[in-house]
Design goal:
Elements: H1 7-24, H2 28-33, H3 40-52, H4 71-81, H5 87-90, H6 97-107, H7 110-122, E1 127-130, E2 147-151, E3 154-165, E4 172-178, E5 189-195, E6 201-206, E7 214-215, E8 218-231, E9 235-236, H8 242-278, E10 280-282, E11 285-286, H9 291-321, H10 327-351, H11 354-357, H12 363-370, H13 380-396
Parallel strand pairs: 1-4
Antiparallel strand pairs: 2-3, 3-8, 4-5, 5-9, 6-8, 7-8, 10-11
The structure holds flavin-adenine dinucleotide.
Residues 96, 129-132, 137-139, 163-165, 209, 220, 372, 375-376, 379, 381-382, 385 line the site of flavin-adenine dinucleotide.
Length: 402
């Protein structure tokens, strides 16, 4: 294992850290007061600055205008950008576009790449990924009910999705729908590109999440697909391979998310330490003098360090041995890092007392929006069950020792 950071990446991260501190973190108070869409003109100005610094689209292919960083490199970049909720968006590597770009790059036809991939990497359009359904369990996606039925040269899509993140203002959705109902469960669904102006693509609402509807990129929509017709050329990858492709996308995506969460942890931890050192709690004594706070600080530091090493190890393994070999590590980091994130943000908020509940710091925003880390990209319980089953099987087969 080698987690050595190259000089190139060190200097990229230094530039990004400086940009976040000078340009983006000062925008947070406004971001917390106004809607995301209202902030767009200012955000686009910042995006132009990032392009001029040649730091645009770090993980995306060079031939499409990205920096072409590898998984480990982008993991480290994602940690740096994660310190501010606007980081990934302003640097052109935000979810769900980052994942969709990966799918289009690996599985798109030449025509799909020109029409959707290029403007997506350039930041001219946005996209969304529409899989989870209102009435079916997202944690068991083979139960999908949305169908895409061939009619002449078209697929006709019907179904009700929700939690389609960033659909508000997206140019197109990548939709998971059942095309081969008679096939084995994991070969029933396909991915289809559906432009959002297609008749029958009905965005019903932005779902209020923890009391906030959000807008634009920073929102999650419910979408009704009602006889929504797209040409067969909009099939992405082979028919029936939706889950196979989704699985490929989720591996690197989990590294990106976990490293972003570690960026959030770093920020929350810094705020916690600084508040503890500056809050007078009794005459002449600071909050940091209390042992219980010191214990939290030490425990959070250990949690963050443990999660970081686990995520870097999983990224290293995935990069060097492939997604399949790193499956166990990917599940471990997904639930471990999500819970570290929750503990660290919760303790940082607690240290701030009443102030932690206000929007005078970024902590309440993190608390509201990052609780979802334990739900999306695989709920905690499913990851734990799958790791445990694998371990027990390997013991049974004598492949694992104490
Ligand atoms: C903020 C956010 C953004 C999202 N973005 C997207 C997106 O862009 N596109 C998209 O398609 N989806 C998205 N999702 C949806 C997400 O993928 C699903 O919510 C997730 O897969 C869980 O599915 P579910 O909500 O249907 O919960 P269910 O499947 O109903 O599960 C409910 C609960 O049951 C428990 N559980 C489930 N399975 C098991 C089991 N086997 N054993 C024990 N307990 C179990 C877990 O505690 C789980 O939380 C997003 C969700 C959130 C919260």
């Amino acid at each position: 294992m080698d987690f050595e950071i190259s000089e190139k990446i060190k200097s990229v991260i230094e530039m990004m850290d400086e940009f976040l501190d000078k340009e983006l973190i000062p925008m947070e108070p406004e971001f917390l007061k106004r809607s995301f869409v209202e902030m767009l003109p200012e955000l686009e100005e910042k995006q132009d600055m990032v392009r001029q610094m040649e730091l645009w689209a770090p993980p995306h292919p060079k031939e499409y205008g990205g920096m072409g960083l590898d998984l480990m490199e982008f993991g480290l970049v994602s940690e740096s950008l994660g310190r501010c909720p606007l980081g990934h968006y302003v640097f052109g590597c935000q979810p769900p576009d980052a994942g969709n770009i990966e799918i289009l790059y690996l599985h798109g036809t030449d025509a799909q790449k020109e029409r959707y991939l290029r403007p997506l990497v350039e930041g001219k359009i946005r996209s969304c990924f529409s899989m989870t359904e209102v009435d079916m369990p997202g944690s068991n996606p083979v139960m999908l009910e949305t169908t895409a039925v061939m009619d002449g040269n078209d697929y006709v899509i019907n179904g009700q999705k929700w939690y389609t993140s960033s659909a508000d203002g997206a140019e197109f959705a990548i939709v998971m729908a059942v095309t081969n109902p008679e096939a084995a469960p994991y070969l029933r669904a396909s991915m289809l590109i559906v432009p959002s102006d297609t008749p029958g693509f009905n965005r019903v609402r932005n779902i209020p999440v923890m009391g906030h509807e959000g807008s634009g990129w920073a929102s999650h929509s419910e979408i009704l697909y009602q006889s929504c017709r797209v040409p067969k050329e909009n099939l992405l990858g082979p028919e029936g391979h939706g889950f196979v492709i989704a699985q490929e996308r989720l591996g690197p995506g989990r590294i990106h998310h976990c490293m972003r969460w570690l960026g959030i942890c770093k920020r929350a931890f810094g705020l916690m330490c600084s508040r503890a050192q500056n809050r007078v709690i009794s005459p002449g004594r600071m909050l940091a003098s209390k042992q219980i706070i010191q214990t939290w600080i030490a425990e959070c530091a250990a949690d963050i360090q443990a999660a970081r090493l686990m995520v870097l190890h999983a990224a290293w393994k995935m990069q060097n041995l492939g997604v399949k070999e790193a499956r166990e590590e990917i599940s471990l980091i997904k639930f471990f890092a999500a819970n570290v994130l929750q503990r660290v943000v919760d303790r940082a908020l607690q240290v701030h007392g009443g102030m932690g509940m206000t929007d005078d710091t970024i902590l309440a925003f993190f608390y509201r929006h990052e609780r979802a880390a334990r739900i999306y990209d695989g709920v905690d319980e499913v990851h734990k069950l799958s790791v445990a089953r694998r371990i027990l099987r390997e013991y049974d087969q004598g492949k694992r020792e104490n």
